[in-house]
Amino acid sequence: MVHYTKSLLVLTLIMLSNSRAAHHHHDHNRCLSAALSHAEQHCTEAGVRLTPIRRAVLELIWQSHRPLGAYAVVEQLPSILGRPIRPPSVYRAIDFLLEMGLIHRLPSYNAFIGCPFPGSEHSDVFMVCRCCGSAAEVSAETLNKSLEDTASRAGFQLETQNIELSGLCASCQQEDSSS
Amino acid sequence: MVHYTKSLLVLTLIMLSNSRAAHHHHDHNRCLSAALSHAEQHCTEAGVRLTPIRRAVLELIWQSHRPLGAYAVVEQLPSILGRPIRPPSVYRAIDFLLEMGLIHRLPSYNAFIGCPFPGSEHSDVFMVCRCCGSAAEVSAETLNKSLEDTASRAGFQLETQNIELSGLCASCQQEDSSS
DNA sequence: CAGTGATTTGGTATAATGTACCACTTTATT
DNA sequence: AATAAAGTGGTACATTATACCAAATCACTG
Ligand SMILES: [Zn+2]
Ligand SMILES: [Zn+2]
Ligand SMILES: [Zn+2]
Ligand SMILES: [Zn+2]
Hints:
Largest interface: A-B, 41 and 42 residues
Structural class of chain A: alpha+beta
Strand content of chain A: 15-25%
Bound molecules: zinc ion
Strand order of the largest sheet of chain A: 1-5-4-6
Radius of gyration of chain A: 18 Å
Oligomer: homodimer
Largest sheet of chain A: 4 strands, mixed
CATH superfamily of chain A: Winged helix-like DNA-binding domain superfamily/Winged helix DNA-binding domain
CATH architecture of chain A: Orthogonal Bundle
């Protein structure tokens, strides 16, 4: 019985998440610079190039924790690069960043968001606040097991997943109840 | 010990799924007619009208277990109604069917699929086969709890969800290994 | 049954998102 | 320097979805 309780606790605690930052007031410059230096390092190690355009697109997507649409990137790129960049170039940069695992796509929003833990193995699970629009990523061992289990019970061999949870983040819940 | 085993089994078994049909050879006419009569009944009870267009769109979406795009519906509608129907009318019908819970939208595919258990409370979880393209819906108690648990541990108040699992269905796994 | 308001549909035009394609430039390799 | 590979510029276009207003149909009332 003791053993059961212990192992349950261990499983319970294995959870990566940036919800503390994404859904609360915080120093976002740290998120941004961490993401950029991560990206530099990641690309160097992989032997690929984080060109100015790719870097600028990543920077724009990381400007907040709200998913950003491709055409919003197109509109804002001149502010960083000083010259207009057309959709195909932006989509090429986005494809690169997706393949490198530096950003994720949120299909229900037709938008993209920076990955807070690129490189480390994790499941793509997003909690998007319907009030403030910010999205946090979470990777929970128990949830992964549950997904894997549900799929295998249906004879389905799970390969990739897209999980978008919508609701109220902690901050917006407080504002809701205080108003 | 016996009690623990039993309750685990009970939780394990609470799972709605149409994967047996969706991912295997079956008499699909039964799926179709069941869906249509369900829809009639559901609409009557709700006091709304399943008009010819709405019914035809539902019928087309239920023609298989593969998600169907809105413009595929537009193209095929003449074969049922005998006259062309333009995109806005199709999208209006789709919006109606979505609101009634008779179909679901799969955002990563920009496509729609019939709900095998409309009316009954269920979570939106789809297993889409990357080989044959068919999508099964599943609603598992344990997965729901796990999602709820993951969200609440991040202080997130879960309201709606979109879960798309991609991989190989049972049938396509066999073909893969036999070839 | 006629009148009236609400719901549904028809149809044009356009918005929003994403891609095919080819020429050109830059970078890496020999 | 020559060559190959990778990346970018730019036009045109494909796909998905919606705004808007007019016409038709339906539901209800007197
Ligand atoms: Zn931040
Ligand atoms: Zn991630
Ligand atoms: Zn079927
Ligand atoms: Zn359903």
